[in-house]
Amino acid sequence: MIAPAALLSRRTLLIAGLVAVVLVAALVLRPRGASSAGAGSPLIGKPAPALAGTTLTGQRFVLRPGHVTVVNIWASWCDPCRQELPLVAGLAQRWASDGVQVATIDTRDGASLARDFLAKVGASGLLAVQDPDGRTAVGWGATGVPETFVVDARGVVRARWIGAVSESWLTGQVRRWSTA
After folding, report:
1. Nearest to 142 by CA among 43, 4, 61
2. Among 125, 178, 124, 160, which residue's Cα sits nearest to residue 46?
3. By the 8 A CB rule, do 109 and 78 touch?
4. How distant, in Å, are the alpha carbons of 21, 66, 147, 159 from that of 170?
5. Whole-model pTM above 0.85?
6. pLDDT at residue 18, as a whole number
Protein backbone atom coordinates (compact mmCIF):
# COMPACT_ATOMS: atom_id res chain seq x y z
CA MET A 1 0.00 0.00 0.00
CA ILE A 2 1.22 3.53 -0.84
CA ALA A 3 1.65 5.85 2.12
CA PRO A 4 -0.64 8.96 2.10
CA ALA A 5 2.40 11.28 2.10
CA ALA A 6 3.84 9.58 -1.00
CA LEU A 7 0.46 9.77 -2.74
CA LEU A 8 0.23 13.46 -1.97
CA SER A 9 3.72 14.02 -3.38
CA ARG A 10 2.89 12.17 -6.59
CA ARG A 11 -0.40 14.04 -6.94
CA THR A 12 1.36 17.38 -6.32
CA LEU A 13 4.04 16.55 -8.88
CA LEU A 14 1.42 15.50 -11.43
CA ILE A 15 -0.56 18.72 -10.95
CA ALA A 16 2.59 20.84 -11.10
CA GLY A 17 3.63 19.04 -14.27
CA LEU A 18 0.24 19.60 -15.90
CA VAL A 19 0.29 23.29 -14.96
CA ALA A 20 3.77 23.63 -16.49
CA VAL A 21 2.65 21.93 -19.72
CA VAL A 22 -0.40 24.21 -19.99
CA LEU A 23 1.73 27.34 -19.42
CA VAL A 24 4.31 26.31 -22.01
CA ALA A 25 1.58 25.45 -24.52
CA ALA A 26 -0.08 28.83 -23.92
CA LEU A 27 3.18 30.63 -24.63
CA VAL A 28 4.10 28.57 -27.68
CA LEU A 29 0.63 28.52 -29.24
CA ARG A 30 -0.35 32.13 -28.55
CA PRO A 31 -1.26 34.17 -31.61
CA ARG A 32 1.81 35.87 -33.03
CA GLY A 33 -0.08 38.93 -34.19
CA ALA A 34 -0.67 41.61 -31.62
CA SER A 35 -2.06 45.10 -31.57
CA SER A 36 -0.70 48.06 -29.69
CA ALA A 37 -1.99 46.65 -26.42
CA GLY A 38 -0.39 43.24 -26.77
CA ALA A 39 2.83 43.48 -28.72
CA GLY A 40 4.92 44.89 -25.91
CA SER A 41 6.80 47.24 -28.19
CA PRO A 42 8.43 50.17 -26.42
CA LEU A 43 7.70 52.18 -29.59
CA ILE A 44 3.93 52.29 -29.06
CA GLY A 45 2.92 55.87 -28.27
CA LYS A 46 6.34 57.26 -29.20
CA PRO A 47 7.61 59.02 -32.32
CA ALA A 48 8.44 56.61 -35.13
CA PRO A 49 12.12 55.76 -35.58
CA ALA A 50 13.88 57.17 -38.59
CA LEU A 51 13.11 55.51 -41.87
CA ALA A 52 15.24 56.89 -44.65
CA GLY A 53 17.18 55.27 -47.42
CA THR A 54 17.29 54.16 -51.00
CA THR A 55 14.33 52.26 -52.38
CA LEU A 56 14.60 49.23 -54.62
CA THR A 57 13.88 51.56 -57.56
CA GLY A 58 16.84 53.79 -56.64
CA GLN A 59 14.80 56.69 -55.24
CA ARG A 60 15.49 58.39 -51.92
CA PHE A 61 12.78 57.92 -49.27
CA VAL A 62 12.28 59.65 -45.91
CA LEU A 63 9.33 58.89 -43.66
CA ARG A 64 7.68 62.15 -42.65
CA PRO A 65 4.58 62.84 -40.56
CA GLY A 66 1.46 64.10 -42.30
CA HIS A 67 -0.46 60.93 -43.09
CA VAL A 68 -1.05 57.47 -41.67
CA THR A 69 1.80 55.18 -42.70
CA VAL A 70 2.02 51.41 -42.59
CA VAL A 71 5.60 50.19 -42.20
CA ASN A 72 6.12 46.53 -43.06
CA ILE A 73 9.44 44.75 -42.51
CA TRP A 74 10.13 41.74 -44.73
CA ALA A 75 12.83 39.64 -46.41
CA SER A 76 12.91 37.46 -49.51
CA TRP A 77 13.90 34.38 -47.49
CA CYS A 78 10.83 34.70 -45.23
CA ASP A 79 7.95 32.37 -46.12
CA PRO A 80 5.24 34.32 -44.20
CA CYS A 81 6.44 37.43 -46.05
CA ARG A 82 5.80 35.62 -49.33
CA GLN A 83 2.21 35.09 -48.18
CA GLU A 84 1.51 38.62 -46.92
CA LEU A 85 3.27 40.89 -49.43
CA PRO A 86 0.63 40.58 -52.18
CA LEU A 87 -1.96 41.67 -49.59
CA VAL A 88 0.22 44.58 -48.44
CA ALA A 89 0.80 45.65 -52.06
CA GLY A 90 -2.92 45.51 -52.85
CA LEU A 91 -3.80 47.58 -49.78
CA ALA A 92 -1.07 50.10 -50.62
CA GLN A 93 -2.59 50.59 -54.05
CA ARG A 94 -6.14 50.84 -52.68
CA TRP A 95 -5.21 53.30 -49.91
CA ALA A 96 -2.99 55.60 -51.99
CA SER A 97 -5.93 57.80 -53.01
CA ASP A 98 -6.94 58.12 -49.32
CA GLY A 99 -3.53 59.49 -48.36
CA VAL A 100 -2.39 56.37 -46.52
CA GLN A 101 1.19 55.47 -47.28
CA VAL A 102 2.67 51.98 -47.18
CA ALA A 103 6.45 51.86 -46.83
CA THR A 104 8.25 48.57 -46.51
CA ILE A 105 11.72 47.73 -45.29
CA ASP A 106 13.49 44.94 -47.16
CA THR A 107 15.98 43.61 -44.66
CA ARG A 108 19.09 41.54 -45.25
CA ASP A 109 18.66 41.16 -49.02
CA GLY A 110 20.40 42.50 -52.08
CA ALA A 111 18.39 44.88 -54.27
CA SER A 112 18.29 42.54 -57.28
CA LEU A 113 17.16 39.56 -55.20
CA ALA A 114 14.49 41.67 -53.48
CA ARG A 115 13.15 43.08 -56.76
CA ASP A 116 12.96 39.57 -58.25
CA PHE A 117 11.19 38.31 -55.14
CA LEU A 118 8.57 41.10 -55.23
CA ALA A 119 7.92 40.45 -58.92
CA LYS A 120 7.57 36.71 -58.27
CA VAL A 121 4.98 37.17 -55.49
CA GLY A 122 3.02 39.87 -57.37
CA ALA A 123 4.05 42.82 -55.20
CA SER A 124 6.50 44.67 -57.44
CA GLY A 125 4.82 48.06 -56.95
CA LEU A 126 5.62 48.29 -53.23
CA LEU A 127 7.76 51.10 -51.91
CA ALA A 128 10.64 49.17 -50.38
CA VAL A 129 13.56 50.78 -48.56
CA GLN A 130 16.74 48.72 -48.67
CA ASP A 131 18.16 47.52 -45.33
CA PRO A 132 20.95 45.11 -46.31
CA ASP A 133 22.55 44.93 -42.86
CA GLY A 134 19.33 44.89 -40.81
CA ARG A 135 20.06 48.08 -38.87
CA THR A 136 16.86 49.84 -39.88
CA ALA A 137 14.71 46.84 -38.88
CA VAL A 138 16.50 46.65 -35.53
CA GLY A 139 15.95 50.39 -35.06
CA TRP A 140 12.23 49.73 -35.41
CA GLY A 141 12.44 47.08 -32.72
CA ALA A 142 11.78 44.18 -35.08
CA THR A 143 12.41 40.81 -33.54
CA GLY A 144 11.91 38.93 -36.79
CA VAL A 145 10.12 39.14 -40.11
CA PRO A 146 7.50 39.95 -41.02
CA GLU A 147 6.49 42.74 -38.65
CA THR A 148 4.13 45.60 -39.35
CA PHE A 149 3.76 48.97 -37.64
CA VAL A 150 1.07 51.62 -38.02
CA VAL A 151 2.19 55.23 -37.63
CA ASP A 152 -0.39 58.00 -37.22
CA ALA A 153 -0.36 61.31 -39.12
CA ARG A 154 1.62 62.98 -36.30
CA GLY A 155 4.40 60.41 -36.71
CA VAL A 156 3.60 58.38 -33.58
CA VAL A 157 3.75 54.57 -33.63
CA ARG A 158 0.27 53.33 -32.73
CA ALA A 159 0.24 49.59 -33.40
CA ARG A 160 2.46 46.61 -34.11
CA TRP A 161 1.72 43.20 -35.61
CA ILE A 162 4.20 40.35 -35.32
CA GLY A 163 4.02 37.73 -38.08
CA ALA A 164 2.01 37.74 -41.30
CA VAL A 165 -0.49 40.58 -40.99
CA SER A 166 -4.19 40.06 -41.57
CA GLU A 167 -6.24 42.35 -43.78
CA SER A 168 -8.88 42.87 -41.10
CA TRP A 169 -6.38 43.94 -38.44
CA LEU A 170 -4.50 46.24 -40.78
CA THR A 171 -7.64 47.82 -42.23
CA GLY A 172 -9.04 48.36 -38.74
CA GLN A 173 -5.85 50.03 -37.55
CA VAL A 174 -5.63 52.30 -40.60
CA ARG A 175 -9.27 53.35 -40.15
CA ARG A 176 -8.75 53.92 -36.44
CA TRP A 177 -5.70 56.13 -36.82
CA SER A 178 -6.96 57.92 -39.95
CA THR A 179 -9.86 59.33 -37.96
CA ALA A 180 -7.98 60.01 -34.72
Report:
1. 43
2. 160
3. no
4. 33, 19, 12, 9
5. no
6. 44
